[in-house]
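Recall that a protein's primary structure is simply its ordered list of amino acids. Everything else, from secondary elements to tertiary packing, is in principle encoded there. The following example makes that idea concrete.
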Amino acid sequence: MYREAHHAASSPPQEVRTEAPPEEHGLETTLDTLHAMDLQHAPEQDVVRAMELMVTHAEFPCLGAKSVFRRGSVVHAVLDDMDAPDTPQVLLERLTRFAHDIDGEDGFHSFIATFRRPEHDDEAAFEASLFALLQRLHDADAETWAPGVEADPNDPHFAFSAGGTAYFIVGLHPAASRVARRAALATLVFNPHDQFEQLRADGRFDGMRATIRRRDEHLQGSVNPMVADHGESSEALQYSGREHDLDWEPPLEVHPTPSLHEEDRR
């Protein structure tokens, strides 16, 4: 498994023992245990380990996430502050390197960014930080929007683009109402869109999606109201995990690059 981390803590990390709770503990109990640890000040390996314990738990519903951890095809960057001025540039550089490294490789790959700060009291606060970061990330990105997806955040075929690569983003944080989104620290998972298209081409997408949704319903006790298929509604509705009406508009302003204008004139 290849991992990288970036941090500039003002005080040295404290040693925290991140051990797996007993196997009989359910996912919610495991997440409560991880949340009770002081991972904000823990060494990066403990932060990475906490995410691994969450995803590899038997009750965690997402099979794709389990696959990337099982195959070691995840890059996990641990950053200090989601709202820091230098975070967008650092994140863009990491994502660009990630996309380059996996180019031409088969199977699932994910880039995970976990942030030690800030602490979000509720889903609205996390969502505000998420979209503020995506806006700043987009503002720092000089590349053309990724091909094959739309740049309008309200379009049903929208996907976020960073460094010319399209991603489906999954936001995780301690205050999430859905158990499967309840990570110990604020986290963004960037999943390349191309791998979902490959699943469709292979005829495996529908079966995997149905299994994940069934597992999530079993874990939560209810269907996730924000789940939709690509092309039905903007996937930005799903990024933060917060429940929204379908007429909600993502707080993200995509501005065309000169290269996009050139494409329009052709």
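The chain has one domain: 27-265. Residues 27-265 form one domain.
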